[in-house]
Amino acid sequence: MRKIRKAKWLNDKALTWLGTDDLQADAIFDLKTDDNALSVWHVEDDKSNLQVVIAALSTTSDNLSNLDYVLVEQSVFAKAGLKVIHTRGKTVYDEANKWHRDLVELSAKSLINTALLIASQRSEMKRLLPKQVLSLLQEKIMAGEIKTAELKEKLRGKIEQSPQ
Length: 164
Known about the structure:
Elements: E1 2-4, H1 6-9, E2 38-41, H2 50-58, E3 67-70, H3 74-79, E4 83-86, E5 100-104, H4 108-119, E6 125-128, H5 130-142, H6 153-161
Antiparallel strand pairs: 1-3, 2-5, 3-6, 4-5
């Protein structure tokens, strides 16, 4: 799973110059690398940990907003020759951090190929609305899995202001 901005990955009909098997250059911004590695999250085939991973991603935001993501089969990355390693996530949701992975040793060419692989998974692009993100975070906070005090100030304020 990778957090994205869904609108940048869809082939907008208004962009008549964009080929049907191409994607907007702006989509590459969603694939910001660090030390030639791209942060991704492992989601089980049965999606049993999907809500945990989404909650973890939500804790990294400053505000409540749409959360767009794409699911890509790990085998797709393997077939493309991309190297996936397990690295602990850096969210305040400690239990979820074990699901974090990195695509490593990425070159500019392999990053473009990764973008094209992600774009080919358009049917697996999903969006959670702010109220869904809020509900999920509140659930994890109530369960004691996420500590409100560890969230960013603006996000914490939105959660504390919201009725439960």
